[in-house]
Write a structure and sequence with these properties.
single chain, alpha+beta, 5-stranded mixed β-sheet, two-stranded antiparallel ribbon, 2 helices, 18% helix, 32% strand, disordered N terminus, disordered C terminus
């Protein structure tokens, strides 16, 4: 194996990065469908989490998050806690980007 091959293997993150996450976002209608995973680092608020989902996912209507205890997670400044969350909406879930759509390497060539 060449040095270039070794470097690309060690610097390329795995396709499934869920092992690096302590928080998982699921579709409420199918708890087996994980939409996103992330690390709940210090300083992230519940409002930040809602904002992130508005960037990564496309819904046809307003959505809310519920935790494992089926408690509504407010769009507030409280510290976001690690765990499982479920997206609930009266509309439909259309898409969730797993990569930044405009910042992939092939866009710069």
């Amino acid at each position: 194996m060449s040095v270039i091959d070794e470097d690309s293997q060690t610097n390329t993150p795995p396709t499934d990065r869920s092992a690096w996450c302590d928080t998982y976002i699921y579709a409420s209608d199918n708890h087996d469908t994980m939409l996103r995973g992330l690390w709940a680092s210090e300083g992230i608020t519940n409002a930040n989490l809602y904002s992130m989902l508005e960037i990564f996912c496309i819904f046809t209507d307003t959505f809310h998050l519920y935790d494992d205890r089926k408690q509504l997670v407010g769009r507030d400044g409280l510290q976001f806690q690690p765990g499982n969350y479920f997206v609930v909406t009266n509309g439909r879930f259309l898409h969730c980007f797993h990569h930044w759509p405009l910042l992939t390497a092939n866009r710069f060539h």
